[in-house]
Amino acid sequence: MTIKAVNCAKVLGAPLIASASYFLSNHINSRQQINPKGIRYLGGLENNKRNILIEELNKMSMINNVNLDTKRDFELGLTREELTKRTHKDYLTTKKMLAVDAPEYKALAAGDKEALKHLVKAAARLDKVEMQLDDHNNLAFKEYLEKEVSKGNEDAKLTKILFDAQKGIFALDRNADMVKLAKGLEPKKGIGVYPADLEKDEFHSILIKMLKDGKTEEVKKILNQRSIVERSGEELKATDYVDYFKEDFEYMASELEKAAETSTNADFNEYLHLQAKALRKADPMLDAYADKKWATLQDTPLEFTITRENYSDEMTESVVENSELKKLLDENGIVPVSKDCLGGRVGIVNKEGTDAILNVKKYLPLMAKNMPLNDKYVQNISADKETKQTMVDVDLVGVYGDVGEYRAGITLAENLPNDDKLSIIKLDGGRRNVYHRQIRLITSEDAKEKMQKRLDATLNKELHKYYNDEADHWFTVGHENGHSLGPKSGTEGLGKYKSIIEENKADMVSLSMLDVLTDAGMYTEAQREQIILTYAADNMMMAKPTMSQAHRVRSVMQNYYFIKEGAIEISKDGILNVNMEKMVPTAQKMLKEIIEVQLSGDFARGEKYVNDYFVWTPEMETMAANIKKVSKTLNGKVESPLADKLLSE
Asked: Are 437 and 353 in contact (CB under 8 A)?
């Protein structure tokens, strides 16, 4: 801990500085941080000591000549043996983005090539931003690793490979084990967006008191999706992302404007200017206008997205579990929305792949018409209105922040903006699906061989003929469009189960619509069978997930539900059998139940629904063991040669 004071003695006098210095050195241990903006967290300090310290620091901060920072060392969390294993290619898979000499890049106009350079620079800055949102210690640990690597520390070198891959200290692997790259640290429910010493019960108590004291507007800011929350005496205060990351966002905005100077597409340039404005001013409506324009982009050579999704913040969503707090929030008209994590995607739109995906658009009204209980809610896609949904298949140049975090898996596709965004709520904007070609494609012979070994170990050999890796892509197309179907609001009351149930819904939409779409001519009967079988085979996992893994919890729920309905069977030897004719009716039944839970908006009902079906059976465990015998992969990393070259220019 160091205190940098410039001319403080002339204003405050030496005794005050000495007192604060003594207090800091004697009451803050090495795991407690103070940042230049003030106190981020103060470990386990007792309330009275914390209050005294806050008072002293507030006095010092008034002269704007005090800069507090932290210099600390870490202890690496993994042994050399574990590091060597986890960084081996058999355990750490690699996804390669576009190469420097990629034909997709060479085919771009000169202006778009120049624009791409600036888009990559803008998106890459989100790595720094998202690391701070993810955990308070990430940036300091990254700096520590870089210093240790420069000293020749081999363990630090291996640790940094994992850190760069998962973009943070913590990550769950495919075995659902938490990878902790630093010893003595634990992930927080409030990730990096809440004070690290803030526990759930204290959080609820503070909010209750603030609401009773009439601090309604501040509580709204605390519980919205775009703020960083810090302590302010006995209360909490929220700072909008734009203000908190002002320097980083200003840099990004400048790069977007530079890209718009040379990009050849007028619509795309209009979006870049709107997004730049939203990065410069803390006004949610500016993001809404940018989102609305982004969602209309269809025929553009380039792809750039700042993604905002809220799967990681478990603190905000906990407020609905406290009945007293929930009542106060309802009385004050406050709808809590979990904090967004931020990601960036840069790519080149693949016209052939996009044309194939766009074929589904004409069927979306038909899908909306066939949604269960569709007379009881409003959905983003209507059977009798224009479909506001664009779709693109993208060759990726780089993925950053939340999009690029390789933790057990990595983002395959996205359907944005989500229902909590103002472009949907206030501007009646549309949505846009973006599919990631480099993530989904299995092109190497080695990868194909590994897939065949997995099928041999887990699937009845008579069903192998139905497996088609491309069918997984078409299932994903159905999944992403499924997010636009069903209730578009009112699910916030499901709290921590909201995301699990929503992901479950999207899967069941994709599967339950197969007969409708086959009858309509979108799929052949052979393709229908391939999608069914490939979904069932790919839904099997190598370990029981934790409740925080929404995308994986829903897979366990589906497997257990389908077993109970007789649609699938896992033998005692861990081999999957699929009743092809029962799969779609079972999906339709499950989808109806999911919609009923979403319409209820009731936390207890959502909790019961998840717990009823989140059952890991002995047969699932046997199959998991079979998968582990043929697949060692625990996590992955991304290599971006073209993006790296553009960043260096």
From this structure: yes
Minimum mean pLDDT range among 18-27, 59-68, 484-493: 18-27
* φ, ψ of residue 428 in degrees (nearest 5): 55, 40
Q: Is 217 exposed, middle or buried (0-12, 13-18, 19+ CB in 10 A)?
A: exposed
Q: Can you point out the beta strands (E) in 226-293? A: 227-232, 235-240
Token pair recorded at residue 515: 């007969």
What is the identity of the amino acid at 291?
Answer: D
Partnered with residue 230 across adjacent β-strands are 237
The boundaries of the domain holding residue 63 are: 2-69
| Within a domain: 229 | no
Q: Rounded to an integer, what distance in angstroms lies between the CA atom of residue 315 and that of residue 193?
A: 9
d(CA 368, CA 362): 11
Residue 622 neighbours by CB under 8 Å, 6+ apart: 570, 572, 573, 574
Long-range contacts of 215-220 (CB under 8 A, 24+ apart): 216/332, 216/334, 219/329, 219/332, 219/334, 220/334
- H helices present in 540-602, as ranges: 550-564, 580-600
Q: Look at residue 25 and tell me if it is in a domain.
A: yes
Residue 491 has pLDDT above 60, yes or no: yes
**Could you tell me the sign of the dihedral formed by the alpha carbons of 276, 138, 307, 488, in that order?**
negative
Q: What percent of the chain has pLDDT over 90?
A: 81
Inside any domain, residue 130: no
In a domain, 16, yes or no: yes
Give the predicted TM-score (pTM) of the model.
0.83
- What CA–CA distance (Å, rounded) separates 569 from 566? 7
pLDDT, tens digit (0-9, with 9 covering 90-100), for 503-528: 999 999 999 999 999 999 999 999 99
Q: How many domains does the chain have?
A: 1
CA distances from 29 to 41, 179, 252 (A): 12, 25, 36
Residue 72: the pLDDT is 65
The predicted structure's pLDDT at residue 384: 66
Could you read off the pLDDT of 611-622 as tens digits, one per residue? 999 999 999 999
